[in-house]
Amino acid sequence: MDELNQLPGIGLFSLNGRSAIITGGSKGLGFAMAAALASAGAEIMLVNRKADEGEEAASVLSAQYGTRIISFPADITDQQQTESMAAHAMEVFGKIDILVNSAGINIRGPIDELSLADFSSVMQVNVTGTWLCSKAVVPYMKKNNSGKIVNMASTLGLVGLSNRTPYTSSKGAVVQMTRALGIELAGFNINVNAICPGPFLTDMNKSIAETEEGKKFIVGATAMGRWGELKEIQGAAILLASDASAYMVGSMVTVDGGWTAR
To answer: Is residue 1 in some structural domain?
Structure first.
């Protein structure tokens, strides 16, 4: 009981003195998670293909939270660029405490109407990109004997949905990558876990928000009967990036309004 009485309470969720890389951090869920980690005190490097978007997002977050936030343009499907990403973070921050693999794409459609290029592009960004970014930071985290890798999986990595073969395949792969890498790195005090968001009204989903499918098979499938708000991903992000998740390895944290509870 003495040990429990010494718990630091809210300090478990503090990210003061921590540095984070967040891919796809200039918009959507990535931006929301960047704001969450900044609010908890982390210094952040946003990684995006479009330099102007990343710089604008970094400027907004830095002004709002008063912590150092920079932008680094990179294609996460290119190994050389992901290695440069990690090297630059080390140069700026001196260490890499947290990696949030948030960058992702979705291409919908029946399998007979999709091309191999459609399937391959989703797998390349969502799976290969996650693997390459993790590969790039792991040597630094191992050297520091500490780290947090937070992957963005999806409820569609746990359950199926028609007309989503590229996306569900990619997110199922991220789920298994998270489990395998979590086991692999646990001995180095590196926690690898994933967030599985349900239907959040991001730019990626706005095209189907008012469709019959969006209303019936997506929103209608949630216990809460609505799309998730971007701010509702933030608690899970802070949990998995902080000391509060010290005993979590290969976990899938669902934030889905009760979709997978049914």
So the answer is: no
